[in-house]
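Researcher: We're teaching a course module on how sequence relates to structure. For the next exercise, students receive a sequence and then see the predicted structure as tokens, so they can try to spot secondary structure elements on their own. Here is the exercise chain.
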Amino acid sequence: MDHVKPSVVFSRCLGFEACRYNGNIIQEQAVEHLKPFVEIETVCPEVEIGLGIPRDPIRLIGDPSSPSLVQPTTGLDLTSRMQAFAKHRLGSLHIPDGFILKYGSPSCGPREVKCYVNEKRGAASTKTHGMFGGAVVEQFPNCVIEDEGRLKNFDVRQHFLTRLFMQARFRELQETPSMKHLIRFHARHKLLFMAYNQSQMRVLGRIVANPDKQPLAMLLERYAEGLQEAFARAPRRVSAINVLMHALGYVSDFLSTTEKAFFLDSLEQYRSGHVPLSVPTSLIRSWILRFDVEYLEDQFYFEPYPQTLVEVLDSGKGRTL
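Model: And here is the predicted structure for the students to work with:
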């Protein structure tokens, strides 16, 4: 299956340049695996506002909803400089499909960043977003945004990759819009929508049906909003089971009683948490190929992102079995 290359903005320290405050570089496996499959742009807000490598650490202080960005050892208040940089840098971006930003960074972190009461060592802290990372979240609400820390989690990574490549496919549709392309896009994602959010699948279906004969530009705008709602949360176990049972209906006439029983048993094993979803899914995929089921072959549910990105030797941390 061919996949569009998503456009992704990375924090530069994540395997691209030794630009951390301490002069280090972060080598993260999930980022390294993804690099060949995406169009890359990098950013290091701290270096790009004029701080050196290495440099004294910076921190967020004050009200978490509107913090200041300071360098305690020098007394520098970098708030205005970082805000101006974020506005300019993000304003110059061609809208990307996603961001992978540095976890916990007072500049890049999109979430879970410490904000201190004051500049003193040991001061109490709460959590907010980094100053640049928060601007990313605000300016690109429809982009897929994660930090490399959360991508260590199997389920978070799978959800991120699914959304990222779906977003890239929809962006390609928007670049060459037509009713024919929208219908095709919707048809190929139907099982994926079913797995994520069945009610939104029906909403998207009604948009594509276009009973009110709305112009294509308006349809695409409504469809984009519906996509964000459909993929807002990772799919539930019961939804995956429903999709696989639906897919079974396309091949069941070709299967022996023993094969059906084996599949249903693997599905029950998944339901009870004894095997991963990949076990019953792989069975269905093998039958799709064996019986040349064109409709299912075309479904992105069975390969939502390049198969190479499925790690054989995954730690399993955070994995939903």
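Model: If you want an answer key for the exercise: The chain has 13 helices and nine strands. Strands lie at 7-11, 39-43, 59-61, 68-71, 76-77, 98-101, 113-116, 125-128, 144-147.
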